[in-house]
Amino acid sequence: MIGEVSGESGTTETENELLLVEDNPSDAELAVRELRRHKFAKTIHVISDGAEALDFVFCRRAYQSRSFSRPPQVILLDMKLPKVDGLQILAAIKNDPRTCAIPVVIMTSSAEQRDLIESYKMGVNAFIQKPVDFDDFCKVIAHVGTFWLSVNKPPPREAFGPDSPAK
Amino acid sequence: MKSALSVVPKDAEKRLAQMEGRYRGLLEAAPDAIVVVDTAGRIVLLNAQAEKQFGYLRDELLGQQVTTIIPEGFAERLLADALRSVEDTLAQQIGGGIELLGHRKDGSEFPMEIMLSPLESGEGMLITAAIRNISVRKAAESHLAQMERRYRALLEAAPDAMVVVNTSGEIVLLNIQAERKFGYHRDELLGQQVKTIIPEGFAERLLADALRSAEDALAQQIGTGIELIGRRKDGGEFPIEIMLSPLQSSDGMLVTTAIRDITAHKATEAHLLRLNEHLVNGNALLATANADLEMFSSSVAHDLRSPIRQISGFAKILSQDYGQQLPAEANKHLDKIAHGAKQMGCLVDDLLHLAQIGRQALAVQPTALSSIVAAAVEALLPECSDRRVEWRLGKLRTVACDRGLMKQVFVNLLSNALKYSRPRDPAVIEVGQTTLNGERVIFVRDNGVGFDMQYADKLFGVFQRLHRASEFEGTGIGLATAERIIRKHGGRMWAEALQGRGATFFFTIVPVE
């Protein structure tokens, strides 16, 4: 499923899209609520299934109309996902020249050492353990949103591969 | 010097004079003492060796009864022999020498061997007795016998079965242990092939050893024993260990074989092996169980985190978005939901942390504990900004530890001290090192409410709390975590307290010299 959440009117012309890959709808709702409260992104895409997330990133099937040259400004990726898990999605993104420049932030309940090591070896841009306390969780979401959508300078279009499917 | 031969009585004179020429040279050349006796038992002739052996001058013995120098009984024997036929007498002497004691003039005696030889003469039968002093040989013999007795005794005293084997593989000697172990009588084994009792591969080995130089064989025996199978007379077999030791003897090379029954040893070994196997299996099971448990606890903890966040999150949203429309009572309930969720979140995170310590490898390095304590105190200052706390931080030694985990220990102990000294103004918290019963320990002391020593054993149990949650908040995991970390470092942690008079937590840790 995909949920598109439009930002408030009056956002800038920049295409600050955010992709949230999270299979728990309540967690997704809490995150989206906090992101919206801070008006970080114009559009927040929420995808709850790993295979669909790959379709989104690689502009195929339901997302054929998307373009590799206009990727989301940041992807917030959960680890535990149905079908294709977070680490597999990360690997697919980072191993493809068309997508490897997209900032990916892992947001997970677990902080297993081997997950951390694997993620960083694959080139994750940040790794966040979601706090269990809601207030702390909101703070973390605010930090992540502030950093990746306003503090951080995103990669320019030229950083992404030719606007055509690999195959 | 007088003639070597004198003869009595007169009528024998002529013949003896004839004999003299014939025998004189022969007699005197003989290495033995030679005495010629007539049928009346009188000495009629003797040589220089006889004079020397018995300590008499020739004249003192000539004509005397032979019993002067030879014991009474034997003189009769001499006479008896003389009365027999020449054939009988000849047969008699073939049997080898007769051993007797000779009497010297000075009264001393010596062992001798006599060979008799009859001589037909004109005056009737004469008997030539060749007398050999065998005291030297006797002494050598008795020495040999003594040696053999000692060897024998040694052999019999040995706790092992001992078998002496020659190069043909025949058993030439064995001890009582060997009889017992193999169930044979000594006579049944003597002269038998050693294969009878040690069937496999041993005889070849033995021969090979015996064929080598004594040095090689000696070198060979120094190694550990060779394990083989022994076979009893009843066909039963048992495991043995043998040690070979070569022995150069007049009969050629002999090999002394010490045979040890290693049945008990083998059984113990097998038992140990089985025990070890059990242990290995048990350990594997335990490791699996532990891994399962850790997997379980970490996955439960992880899976709990989301719902807890949702409870606290939606309660918060409810109160933020609709709080004003709700009665005050409903808002209180929402606060309780948020509080409960928060506490549950702490519990889950502490549990996860504790589980992680179990799996985490220690990154041990020399660490100045004082700097760790300073960092821990600094981390805790925000918690007690509204209180008066007197910190007494003594200088601590440098120890080998994992810095991150050791900081956790002090944070947990100090936070515990802060918590239970909350009713005090000022709270006094002391960190120092001392020596208790010769053991160097680190301690954290507070002037808080203390605890009842009766429950001291529950102090470090997970979820164990000695105070009501309404008095002092907490999950009951902090001290358990600190204790696990110290235990993981090879140290111990314990506490002493008096109800209402503060508590002291001690721990040991390996110092860096």
End-to-end C-alpha gap of chain A: 26 Å
- The low-confidence runs of chain B, each spanning 5 or more residues with pLDDT under 50, are 1-5
| Oligomerization status of the protein chains | heterodimer
Beta-strand percentage range of chain A: 15-25%
Point out poorly predicted stretches of chain A.
Answer: 6-13
Strands of chain B, total number: 17
Looking at the structure, what is the overall shape of chain A?
A: globular
Can you summarize this structure?
The complex is a heterodimer of chains A (167) and B (513). Chain A is of the alpha/beta class and 167 residues long. Chain A has five helices and six strands, in the order E-E-H-E-H-E-H-E-H-E-H.
Structure in words:
- The complex is a heterodimer of chains A (167) and B (513).
- With 167 residues, chain A is an alpha/beta fold.
- Chain A is 35% helix and 17% strand.
- Chain A contains five helices and six strands; from the N terminus they run ββαβαβαβαβα.
- Chain A has a six-stranded mixed beta sheet, sandwiched between helices.
- In chain A, helix 2 (50-57) runs parallel beside helix 3 (86-94) and helix 3 (86-94) packs parallel to helix 4.
- The radius of gyration of chain A is 15 Å and the shape is globular.
- The relative contact order of chain A is 0.17.
- Chain B has 513 residues and is of the alpha+beta class.
- Helices cover 46% and strands 24% of the residues of chain B.
- A five-stranded antiparallel beta sheet of chain B has the order 2-1-5-4-3, sandwiched between helices. A five-stranded antiparallel beta sheet of chain B has the order 7-6-10-9-8.
- The interface between A and B is medium-sized, with 16 and 21 residues.
